Amino acid sequence: MKTTKTPAKQNKQPGIESEMNPRPEVIKANYKGAGKLKDKVALITGGDSGIGRSVAVHFAREGADVAIVYLDEDVDAKETRKMVEAEGKSCLLIKGDVKKPAFSKKAVENTVKKFGKINILVNNAGMQVPQKDPKEIDDKQLEDTFRINIFGYFYFAHEVLAHFQAGDSIINTTSVTAYRSSPNLIDYSSTKGAITSFTRSLATNLAKSGIRVNAVAPGPVWTPLIVSTFDEEKIKSFGAETAMERAGQPSELGPSYVFLASDDASFITGQVMHVNGGEVVNG
Ligand code: NAD
Question: What's the mean pLDDT in 91-119?
Answer without folding.
Answer: 98
